[in-house]
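Side project, low priority. Logging it here so it doesn't get lost.
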Amino acid sequence: RESLQSEFPKKRDSVQRWELLKSRMERTRVSGRGARGMGMPVWVPQSPQRVGVTGKVTPCYADWEIMLQYCFPRLDINVSKGVGHLLKSPFSVHPKTGRISVPLDLQRLDQFDPFAVPTISLLCHELDVAGDDREQEDSGETEPKRRARDYKKTSLAPYVRVFEQFVEEMERARKGELLRRSDLQGDF
């Protein structure tokens, strides 16, 4: 632990710290030293499992837990610490900067720029422009239907798509889990 604490500050970014930590954990897993004999779990070499004090093999996600707790980049430490922080909600507005809290597309995470997210003033401007265009077109649709689609004409649209895809994937996973449970119980 002490050697890691002394080496972590020497690393430039979270990727280098993570690689250092992974190599140390793997070395501990392979050698089997460290926790054995101290009443602590020991990792099974080359496996995401551990042998507990009682000898029972249980899944081990320590590396994932460590990654999320210590190595994951933080955009705002108060958001990361607070469970009920406002900016954990998608599409909320930061009170000082006016930036919109947006969901991230994990496939394009390296391209994400937190300073390029839409601001509330930009959205208001985009909606005003969309409103002017709408008045010129006036295709005969009712006002509520037109307003419901106005977000699609703003810089928020790609983030809404990311959020919709996330929700759809959660729905599919939930339906699959319900089907699996009903199959196991014999409910048809």
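Brief comment: The first strand starts at residue 42 and ends at 43.
Revisit when time allows.
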